[in-house]
Amino acid sequence: MNDSTDSPAHCRFPRSAYDRTSGLLYFARMLDKIRLHHAGQLPEEYHPFLGQGFDGRMCRFLKVEYPAVRERTLAGGEDAEVLEWCYEHRRNPSDEDVEIFNKYQSKFGWRDEDNGATGRLETHKAAGGFADRTDILTFFDFYEADEKRRP
User: Fold this and answer.
1) Is residue 137 within 8 Å of 108, Cβ to Cβ?
2) Model-level pTM?
């Protein structure tokens, strides 16, 4: 986790969307955002998106409600334990389901003109000073650059 240079000194960026929990992309980032928010360390610009966007997609994939995941996460435990709780209480996807969902999430924004995601990505890139970056093709790529894990 990197310290944010654009936010107050106490704020921190969440983990990479590419981090895996039991093979599942993004889940660790969602939990990290929950923990950082609870500790008052999540940059304010992230607050409106808690439980939305990729967090919401993850919860819909697992068939769990975001407030329940937040509550379980704040009760303690490692990421894998929280994921296992999700599997036990709602949905235990197959390896193929996880693979397909990972591919969907990791490529979101790339050639997604039909749902507007490519346009939203370009807007985020421009606002972040990355409008000329042709190597940022997905939202996951954007997070890596914006949070300074990638030059």
Assistant:
1) no
2) 0.89
